[in-house]
Specification:
With 300 residues, this protein is of the alpha+beta class. The chain has a single domain, classed as Sandwich (Jelly Rolls). It contains nine helices and nine strands. The strands form two sheets. Strands 1-7-4-9-3-2 form a six-stranded antiparallel beta sheet. It has a three-stranded antiparallel beta sheet with strand order 6-5-8, with no helix packed on it. The longest helix is centred in the first third of the chain and has 14 residues. 39% of the residues are buried. The C terminus is likely disordered. The site of 2-oxoglutaric acid (AKG) has 10 residues, from strand 8 and strand 9.
């Protein structure tokens, strides 16, 4: 009505004009955003071409990401814990899994915060994205193929979904045609609501040498392959999600505060010692790093 004051003009009606202004502002005074500096040393053209393949196919296979030494360190640390059969038929009754890795295996850090992987995640997810789960997966010979699935199925968005999560599977053993290499349906990350895999959908196997990784979007239909090779197939997998989503593993309970204080800043941020602005993740109104031993957390 003419002459009537709008809410914007009357100071007693306070409101936010844009959600972007609301969520992109870092309000923390002591522990500001810590962004990964991973992309700095990565060839931008290489990153761009891998990123383009990832968006087109839903996955990209990258070779030579970790050294034989890094693989052996993780294999040794993980093997000490891999003493149980699988939990259920989805994960594979003949597939051993090690959960809670950030507390148990420091050797996994090199895989979780691999600079090239972080550089991709920096492009795909919002700052302060989280580690949703990290596992060593050992598919024993005689294991049938895992049911194909997506890793973002539990986030209730209609498909095709925006990029909510991203995953890696690193080959600790060579992935071969018959030892359980990850199977994926190219392009399936673009499928609409209600579209499930059909037998006729073309599948690819991530056959790749140890030290390589298949990096894929959470919406890609994939699964561990059948292993009838007569020997086991060991892998490391990491899943990462947007900073506003619930993670699959609860790292606040499985990772001690002492460990969280000791790991790298990239690890600490991924474990949830970070804020999604303006205050998701706070503890008593403060940055979670203030909860860690060593005074009020590492300074930046
Ligand atoms: O082991 C693999 O290759 C994939 C495992 C997987 O997709 C899962 O457990 O969610």
């Amino acid at each position: 009505m003419a002459g009537e004051k709008s809410g914007r003009e009357d100071p007693k009606f306070r409101h936010i004009d844009s959600f972007q202004d609301y969520v992109d502002v870092d309000l923390a005074r002591t522990h500001g955003f810590s962004r990964s500096s991973a992309a700095k040393n990565i060839d931008p053209q290489l990153l761009e071409s891998q990123h383009a393949r990832l968006l087109r196919d839903g996955f990209v296979i990258i070779e030579d990401l970790v050294s034989a030494g890094q693989l052996e360190r993780l294999r040794t640390e993980a093997t000490a814990w891999l003493d149980k059969p699988g939990r259920n038929s989805f994960e594979g009754e003949r597939t051993q899994r090690l959960y809670g890795l950030p507390e148990k295996c420091r050797a996994a850090d090199d895989f979780i915060v691999h600079p090239l992987i972080l550089a991709h995640l920096d492009r795909l997810l919002k700052p302060n994205y989280l580690l949703s789960q990290a596992q060593v997966i050992n598919i024993l010979s005689g294991s049938p193929a895992q049911p194909l699935h997506t890793d973002d199925g539990f986030y209730p968005w209609p498909s095709p979904k925006p990029v909510l999560s991203v995953a890696t599977v690193f080959a600790i053993d060579d992935f071969t045609e018959d030892n359980g290499a990850t199977v994926a349906i190219p392009g399936s990350h673009l499928w609409g609501e209600g579209r499930f895999p059909r037998d006729s959908d073309p599948r690819v196997k991530a056959v790749m040498p140890a030290g390589s990784c298949i990096l894929f979007l959470g919406s890609l239909w994939h699964g561990g392959g059948e292993n009838d090779a007569g020997e086991s197939r060991m892998a490391f997998t990491g899943q990462y999600c947007e900073p506003y989503l619930r993670t699959q593993e609860n790292y606040f309970l499985s990772v001690s505060k002492n460990t969280a204080a000791r790991v790298s800043e990239d690890m600490r941020r991924l474990l949830g010692y970070s804020i999604h602005p303006p205050f998701m993740g706070m503890v008593n109104g403060m940055h979670p790093k203030r909860e860690l031993p060593s005074a009020d957390g590492p300074s930046e």
